[in-house]
């Protein structure tokens, strides 16, 4: 049965990402999203695997001839740069974290991409863009921090008819015992993420947004090495990071190495929805 969705506060998320921008780069990667591995034997690096997931989103976006893309919750911009390298698309990335926006714009200029890729501080629920102004929106591992339905409705507003939203999000793949579910729910709260939904509940949620479902993929088997790598990366740098940043960084490091992330009931999805013509 699908869990009910709770809406976390966006302000708290902005704060969460201030310190974790730096810590995530240290313990995981500059891509703030899961990796994609081809098989259990695939031991590709974090960067190869995270870039591979970006490439999957690029393939689902249909931007070979270009277009205007809104990258919602853009991190420090790596996926937007990769999209701009692979297609003639123009990308606007938004985040509610100013440090990310500054870093992403600095990198865009350094790469000579600033004419096609730019980043702006904005909250997803109040996008400063007119109706029908984007061909594609990406919500690349950021929707769990947002009110999913209100966000997708707002994206429906700024997309042109026929435009698509490409989403990745966490997914509940199996029922957990009551005790395990309480632990999972607790981790989601710590990560300021909404309650996990099962595939049927997720699709029911999507159906309420006015957007049409094009594709829904459970890619948990491909992304599942991610939490192990994050935990190992955190353990390897724990002492060094506490030395550098002080003891106040410990709760965040504990969150990153929380073994709850390894629970097999926590999966990952890729979905494509479109605004009708
Ligand atoms: N898509 C990026 C980053 C994912 S991390 C990547 O794949 O690397 C989640 C992102 O969502 C962060 O950039 C965070 O600042 C952003 N975010 C969370 N809540 C938001 C909100 N309400 N409005 C805009 N951005 C938000």
Description:
It is a single chain. The chain is an alpha/beta fold. The protein has a single domain (10-274), classed as Vaccinia Virus protein VP39 (Rossmann fold), CATH 3.40.50.150. Helix content is 44%, strand content 19%. The chain contains 10 helices and 7 strands. Helix 2 crosses helix 3 (78-86) and helix 9 runs antiparallel to helix 10 (250-256). It binds S-adenosyl-L-homocysteine (SAH).
Q: Would you spell out the secondary-structure blueprint of this structure?
A:
Elements: H1 10-27, H2 46-61, E1 68-72, H3 78-86, E2 90-95, H4 98-110, E3 117-121, E4 134-140, H5 148-158, E5 159-172, H6 178-190, H7 199-207, E6 212-218, H8 220-223, H9 225-245, H10 250-256, E7 266-274
Parallel strand pairs: 1-2, 1-4, 2-3, 4-5
Antiparallel strand pairs: 5-7, 6-7
Helix pairs in contact: 2-3, 9-10
Identify the notable features of this structure and list them briefly.
277 residues; Rossmann fold; seven-stranded mixed sheet; 10 helices; globular; disordered N terminus
Give a brief rundown of this model:
By secondary structure, the protein is of the alpha/beta class. It is 44% helix and 19% strand. It has a seven-stranded mixed sheet, sandwiched between helices.
């Amino acid at each position: 049965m699908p869990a009910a969705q709770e809406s976390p506060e966006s302000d708290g998320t902005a704060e969460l990402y201030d310190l974790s921008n730096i810590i995530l780069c240290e313990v995981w990667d500059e891509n703030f999203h899961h990796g994609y591995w081809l098989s259990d034997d695939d031991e590709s690096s974090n960067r190869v695997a995270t870039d591979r997931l970006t490439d999957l989103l690029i393939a689902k976006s249909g931007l070979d001839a270009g277009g205007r893309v809104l990258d919602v919750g853009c991190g420090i911009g790596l996926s937007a740069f990769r999209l701009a390298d692979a297609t003639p698309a123009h990308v606007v990335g938004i985040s509610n974290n100013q440090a990310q926006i500054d870093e992403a714009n600095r990198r865009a200029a350094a790469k000579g991409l600033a004419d096609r890729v730019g980043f702006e501080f904005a909250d997803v629920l109040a996008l400063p863009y007119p109706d029908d102004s984007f061909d594609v929106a990406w919500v690349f591992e950021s929707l769990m921090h947002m009110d999913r339905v209100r966000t997708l409705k707002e994206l429906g507003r700024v997309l042109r008819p026929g435009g698509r939203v490409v989403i990745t999000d966490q997914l509940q793949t199996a029922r957990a015992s009551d005790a395990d579910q309480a632990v999972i729910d607790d981790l989601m709260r710590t990560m300021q993420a909404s309650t996990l939904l099962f595939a049927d509940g997720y699709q029911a949620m999507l159906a309420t947004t006015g957007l049409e479902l094009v594709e829904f993929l459970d890619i948990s088997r491909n992304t599942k090495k991610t939490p192990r790598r994050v935990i190992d990366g955190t353990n390897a740098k724990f002492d060094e990071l506490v030395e550098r940043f002080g003891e106040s960084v410990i709760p965040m490091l504990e969150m990153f190495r929380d073994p709850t992330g390894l629970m097999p009931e926590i999966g990952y999805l890729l979905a494509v929805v479109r605004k009708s013509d």
